[in-house]
Structure formats: structure tokens, C-alpha cells
Design a protein that fits this description.
The protein is mostly beta strands. It is built from no helices and 13 strands. It has a domain at 49-149: Cadherins (Immunoglobulin-like, Sandwich). Strand 8 and strand 9 form a beta hairpin. The radius of gyration is 38 Å and the shape is rod-shaped. Its main location: membrane.
Length: 212
């Protein structure tokens, strides 16, 4: 009888060749040999593993839909369907409907599928999964942080389109006459606003009447 005396791991050794010797108890001893080949069959005992536990990618807020951000890769040493990997996004934070990103189940390509807006969301965190085809399926996970980069694509906005103010003619030079409120939704470093004030002088012609 041939019996197992140690553990097996197909991913380390998939096949064994054993030389079996048989001897009788006669005088002289007679013997014979045979070769036993043992194939180790695979079971789904390995979890898919991503090349990194965490990924980080930066993308401009003006990138077009269908832009490729990243190609993810995971490995599973099992054979056959046990080693075939399918990729998916299990969670997006902050969430959106429809989802902002899509992950190709076969290639692992992560794409942008909705427009970005830095003023709305500056960073996304995705939880991604790699599932093998075994039964039951083994699942590996990783995270992707998508950092949205600001582009100076929004003009400053006044809080109203037209202002009207009355001042006395003897107002001193340099005196404040109006506080303008302006906002810019782009990143702070771009929010230094410069004002160019155009003053229009209306000359009112007067006609003097002389009495005498």
C-alpha cells in the first residue's frame, strides 16, 4: 500500500514520480520495480491577490468620459476556472447614481464614466474585488483612491450683475464707496481675485441763465 505521509500543494509540486521496489523472501532474493506517477489535482485553495493592497491615481477634473485611470492586476496560482479572475467595484465613496467609475471585469481597466467636478468631489475611494471562478469563489480585495485635480475652468461670479451707489461730490479721494462680493469655485490657490474698476463719468451740461 502506498500512503501519504506529508502535505501536498499542487502550486509547489504538481506531479510526483515514485520508484516502487518489491522483494520476496526467498534465497536468493528476487525483486521487481515499477514506477508510480502521482498527479496532484487542483482545489480552489488560493485567494486572488492584487499587485498592491492600495492604489492612488490623480485625474484632472476636465478629463473626458471613457478616460482610462488605471489597469489593475491580480494573480491566482490555481489552475483552470479556479484561477480565472473577474474584477469588480464593490463600493464607491462618496457614492453616486450612476456610478462615476467602471472596472472591466476581464482586463481590470478602471475608466471614468461620468464627468468630474473638483468643486463637488475632490477625492473618491473605491473598494475593488478580484473573484476567481471556483466553487465557492475566493475573493481578494484592494482599494483605489482617485484624487481629482482642479483646473481653472470657472470664472469669478459677482453676487449681482449691476450695482448702483450714490456719493457726495466732496467725498475724499481714497474713501470706500462699495464692498463688492465675488466668489470663485476653483481651488483656493487660484482664487486671488483682481478688480479692475472702470469709472464712467457722466458730464451733465448746465445752462446758466443771466438776469439783469
Amino acid at each position: 500500500m502506498v500512503s501519504l505521509v506529508g502535505g501536498l500543494d499542487r502550486e509547489i509540486t504538481a506531479q510526483y514520480s515514485v520508484l516502487v521496489l518489491a522483494e520476496d523472501q526467498g534465497h536468493p532474493v528476487k525483486s521487481a520495480t515499477a514506477t508510480l506517477t502521482i498527479q496532484v489535482s487542483d482545489i480552489n485553495d488560493n485567494t486572488p491577490k492584487f499587485s498592491q493592497d492600495a492604489y492612488r491615481v490623480e485625474v484632472l477634473e476636465t478629463e473626458a468620459v471613457d478616460f482610462t485611470l488605471l489597469t489593475l492586476s491580480a494573480e491566482d496560482p490555481d489552475e483552470g476556472v479556479n484561477g480565472i479572475i473577474s474584477y469588480s467595484i464593490s463600493e464607491q465613496s462618496p457614492s453616486s447614481d450612476p456610478a462615476t467609475f467602471a472596472l472591466d471585469a476581464t482586463s481590470g481597466v478602471l475608466r471614468l464614466v461620468q464627468p468630474l467636478d473638483y468643486s463637488e468631489v475632490k477625492e473618491y475611494t473605491l473598494k475593488i474585488q478580484a473573484s476567481d471562478g471556483g466553487t465557492p469563489s475566493m475573493v481578494g480585495s484592494a482599494s483605489v483612491v482617485v484624487v481629482v485635480k482642479d483646473v481653472n475652468n470657472k470664472p469669478p461670479e459677482f453676487n449681482q450683475e449691476m450695482y448702483e451707489v450714490s456719493v457726495y461730490e466732496n467725498l475724499a479721494s481714497g474713501a470706500s464707496i462699495l464692498l463688492l462680493e465675488v466668489t470663485d469655485r476653483d481651488e483656493v490657490i487660484r482664487n486671488h481675485l483682481y478688480f479692475a474698476v472702470f469709472v464712467f463719468y457722466y458730464i451733465v451740461k448746465t445752462k446758466l441763465k443771466t438776469f439783469g
